[in-house]
């Protein structure tokens, strides 16, 4: 009996139609993703382009400076000279802090504010010291009691001359303001007050004379002079060099261009 071997049946592969269907399906998926990616890339490119144009627009160069708070001590021309490097720079690229510090190097300024006003303008607001007196020759005293040293002064600036130890500026100023009207009442113009380290006062007059009051009993000693001034010194102050009130019952007058005997004479009450 003859045994027959079973034949092996080969599996059938995908047909051409099946392969084409798979290819088309994959292509559709790929195209769909390519379309999505393309749209996303186009969106990103559009955003980048718009952002760049907006940024360039925001970076308009500074073309104008609007300055508020200038006066005879800090003029607009001086401020513009200090800020000219900012002109032409992108408004958002300007270093506001550096510009502010540049301006504050001027001893007259107490506060500087700089703000950007889009598209091309810087707004500058200034506050300055208001001087009320010269202090110790090379400095000035402000209305707020601050001693400061500006680099320049207006040539026509006329201020009372005050002097004294460190920290005494307000005391000396109060002495000046209280004594000025008292002396003006008899025709003497007070132009300055100096305080020594021990507290002794010297009063400077417009005539060039100096009144030495000492440290104690200022009001009583000054009143002694005022009581006799109309009859003794009125109309003669341009000849007086110094009046010394540091006596218990009188004062001494030193006259200009006179001998020592006359200069040392003491006027009694």
Written overview of the protein:
By secondary structure, this protein is of the alpha/beta class. The chain has helices at 16-58, 76-83, 96-104, 169-184, 218-232, 260-263; strands at 64-68, 109-117, 121-128, 131-135, 139-142, 147-148, 161-163, 190-195, 201-205, 210-214, 240-244, 250-255, 266-268. The strands form two sheets. The protein has a ten-stranded mixed sheet, covered by helices on one side. Helix 4 links the parallel strand 7 (161-163) and strand 8. The chain starts with 15 loop residues before the first helix and ends with a strand. 16% of the residues are buried.
Short description:
This protein is α/β, with parallel strands linked by helices and 269 residues long. 35% of the residues lie in helices and 25% in strands.
User: Could you spell the SSE succession in H and E letters?
Assistant: HEHHEEEEEEHEEEHEEHE
Our Rg estimate from Cα atoms comes to 44 Å
Shape, per Cα inertia axes: rod-shaped
* Number of helices, counting only DSSP H or I runs of 4 residues or more: 6
Distance between the termini: 174 Å
Strand order within the widest sheet?
A: 6-5-4-7-8-9-10-11-12-13
% residues in beta strands: 15-25%
Based on secondary structure, the structural category is alpha/beta
Residues in helix, %: 25-40%
């Amino acid at each position: 009996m003859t045994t027959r071997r079973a034949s092996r049946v080969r599996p059938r592969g995908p047909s051409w139609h099946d392969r084409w269907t798979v290819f088309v399906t994959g292509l559709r998926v790929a195209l769909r993703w390519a379309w999505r990616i393309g749209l996303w890339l186009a969106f990103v490119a559009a955003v980048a382009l718009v952002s760049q144009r907006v940024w360039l627009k925001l970076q308009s160069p500074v073309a104008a400076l609007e300055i508020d708070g200038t006066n005879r001590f800090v003029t607009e021309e001086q401020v513009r000279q200090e800020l000219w490097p900012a002109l032409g720079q992108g408004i958002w690229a300007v270093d506001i802090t550096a510009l502010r510090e540049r301006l504050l190097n001027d001893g007259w300024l107490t506060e500087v504010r700089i703000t950007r006003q889009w598209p091309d303008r810087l707004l500058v607001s200034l506050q300055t010291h208001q001087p009320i007196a010269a202090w110790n020759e090379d400095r000035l005293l402000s209305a707020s009691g601050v001693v400061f040293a500006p680099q320049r002064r207006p040539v026509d600036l006329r201020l009372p001359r005050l002097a004294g130890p460190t920290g005494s500026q307000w005391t000396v100023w109060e002495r000046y303001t209280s004594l000025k009207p008292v002396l003006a009442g008899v025709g003497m113009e007070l132009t300055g007050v100096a305080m020594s380290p021990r507290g002794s006062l010297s009063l400077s007059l417009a005539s060039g004379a100096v009144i030495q009051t000492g440290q104690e009993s200022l009001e009583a000693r000054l009143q002694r002079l005022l009581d006799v001034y109309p009859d003794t010194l009125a109309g003669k102050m341009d000849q007086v060099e110094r009046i010394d009130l540091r006596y218990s019952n009188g004062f001494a007058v030193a006259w200009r261009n006179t001998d020592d005997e006359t200069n040392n004479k003491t006027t009694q009450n």
